[in-house]
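Incident review: delayed structure delivery

Summary: a single-chain prediction request sat in the queue longer than the usual turnaround. Root cause was a stuck worker, restarted by the on-call engineer. No data loss occurred. The affected request and its eventual output are reproduced below so the record is complete for anyone auditing the incident later.

Affected input:
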Amino acid sequence: MRMDCCKLRHIFSVSFNQRQHDGEYRTLVQFAIHRYGAVGNPHTIDMRWKVDMRLNVSTNIDVTACETDGDNLLFLGFHGFSNDENEMIRIIDAIYDVPKQDVSSTDNSIASVQHPNYLSFRGTYERPYIGSYYWYPDGCSVGERRRECSAVGDAVVRLLDSPAYVRFRKVLIGFSQGGYLSYRMIAEHPDVFDMAILMSPSFKGETAEPSPATGRTRFALCYGSEDRTISLSDQQCARNKLAQTGNLTYFEYPGMAHGICNQEIHDLRAWLGLRYALREESCASETPHACP
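Output delivered after worker restart:
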């Protein structure tokens, strides 16, 4: 069986300190990188010091993709409350329509399928005993929520400041808490990200004040018409703030609650301009109004 040594799977542990200086939090980042090549042998680069928090990342990068397929998208995934990094990997794979394959199979027919490049992040807080993760405590203040998002955003931006990622267009994709986290990253780093997919994002505590500058970022905002986990007022706030950017495509899905549906996956595939996108009629709107 032919092995392509250019296709690598990485598991990153991104560790960072939060240190307070003159009333401001400053983030210091370091990495422990576990790299698995086609031969399956791990190689570890470990640069650590005493830390308060660790950000774990699962990523799949095909270094030949830009040259062979013209795919220069790099997805940065952030899951919702009480989940983990695998949630966003499943969603990203679904958008790319990656077929499932038995790991014991020797059939290489899947090799011709276009695979996504992604870094999928695990929440910084773990739920005791349950084992799932989240980005900020439920019910915390707006200031606390923004501070948690800032710490993660600063770490991610530092990670992306590497020659390995320069050629990629960066696409944030987040569900619920992860959607709000993605929005806050763009608000604080407006010139870093090209696109953002916000799936049923929480906007609790945000106000109707003008949205911060968001640079060149294009937004896809998705909600279900029956979503009551995110209040209608918070949904409207998200639509209004993102509409101010002039770069919003809004999707609404009749009958869907706080979740994800097949049509949403198909619409996002087309919105991203993937060449094999299904040409199905979408309920997309370029304005922050509900689709008919």
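Verification: Confidence is low (pLDDT under 50) at residues 1-51, 102-112, 277-292.
Action items: add queue-age alerting; document worker restart procedure.
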